[in-house]
Amino acid sequence: QVQLVESGGGLVQAGGSLRLSCAASGFTFSMFAMRWVRQAPGKGSEWVATINTGGGTTSYTNSVKGRFTISRDNAKNMLYLQMNSLKPDDTAVYYCARSSTTRGQGTQVTVSS
Question: Pick from 92, 85, 80: which is nearest to 65 by CA?
Answer without folding.
Answer: 85
